[in-house]
Specification:
The two termini are about 35 Å apart. About 25% of the residues lie in helices and about 30% in strands. Helix 2 crosses helix 4 (about 75-85) and helix 3 packs across helix 4. It has 2 domains: about 15-100, Arc Repressor Mutant, subunit A; about 115-260, 3-Layer(aba) Sandwich (Chorismate lyase), CATH 3.40.1410.10. It is an alpha+beta fold. Strand 3 (about 90-95) and strand 4 (about 95-100) form a beta hairpin. It has a 6-stranded antiparallel beta sheet. The protein has a two-stranded antiparallel sheet with strand order 1-2.
Length: about 260
């Protein structure tokens, strides 16, 4: 069970909303200020994606159709979609339209997997599952995933390999309530794709914390290095489209054959 989980509906922007937005802003609904109209459109479209109105890979209606349905200008819809494209939530395809983004390997490489081989050529790592099981969530898992005490999680531990050599070992914690049956299936290399296709959960963004550490004995054994080997610890929390934490992933990475690369704009 999750603390403070909020459901969202499919309602769009009403004519009343538009009548209040002649200057391009409207109340947030939380009393904290004014929200631009294109942001309201963005939020409405994201709610529909959360509700499964459009599945990953499916096309959205045209800008003209969305504008007519929501009662806003086509330019407002375009601005909302531009922001969603910048957030990697949708993909614009020239002459074909706008599509809900999928968690294919290319997207994961550039949005979520920041370890790049020293030769500079991005490659998607292979995986070897070490263990998978269900357990009562620890205090740390409850805090990270916003779960109430007594909740259960699925834990996955696996090694990621680059060109056949161990690159990192990671432990993933997932709310069991969101991923029923996960322990009974074969775990694919592309987990985010599985979350989306099987459970309708899209990891839209992640927050990472990095720290230099000495590899503990169990992780060192999984990576085939001596205990105490210098390593990079990456603590990542993944959030769904509606900003719910759905995955806590802690990775211990070797950096002699790869480096962490983040483009800052």
């Amino acid at each position: 069970m999750r603390r403070g989980s909020v459901g969202v509906g499919k309602a769009g922007i009403s004519g009343g909303d538009q009548s209040r937005t002649m200057a391009g802003t409207a109340p947030d609904g939380d009393g904290l200020g004014m929200k631009p109209l294109y942001r309201q459109v963005r939020d409405t479209l994201i709610r529909r994606m959360v509700d499964g109105v459009w599945a990953p890979g499916e096309p959205l209606p045209s800008e003209m159709q969305l504008a007519a349905e929501l009662g806003v200008s086509q330019g407002t819809v375009r601005k909302a979609l531009d922001e969603m494209a910048a957030e990697n939530l949708v993909v614009r395809r020239q002459g074909r339209g706008t599509f809900v983004a999928r968690h294919d390997e290319d997207r994961i490489l550039f949005q979520f997997f920041k370890l790049v081989p020293n030769d500079g050529v991005r490659r998607f790592p292979d995986s070897r599952v070490l263990s998978i099981g269900k357990a009562k969530a620890s205090a740390a898992e409850c805090a990270a995933l916003d779960l109430v005490r007594g909740s259960r999680v699925v834990r996955i531990r696996r090694v990621r390999l680059l060109d056949g050599a161990p690159l990192l070992v990671e432990t993933l914690s997932l709310p069991e309530a969101l991923f029923p049956g996960l322990t009974d299936m074969e775990i694919p290399n592309n987990l985010y794709g599985l979350y989306s296709a099987r459970y309708g959960i899209t990891v839209a963004r992640a927050r990472e914390k990095l720290k230099a550490v000495a590899a503990p004995a169990d992780d060192a054994a999984a990576l085939g290095v001596a205990p105490g080997t210098p390593a990079l610890l990456i603590d990542r929390l993944g959030f769904s489209l509606d900003q719910v934490p759905v995955e806590w992933r802690v990775s211990l990475c070797l950096t002699h054959q790869a480096h962490y690369l983040s483009d800052l704009t």
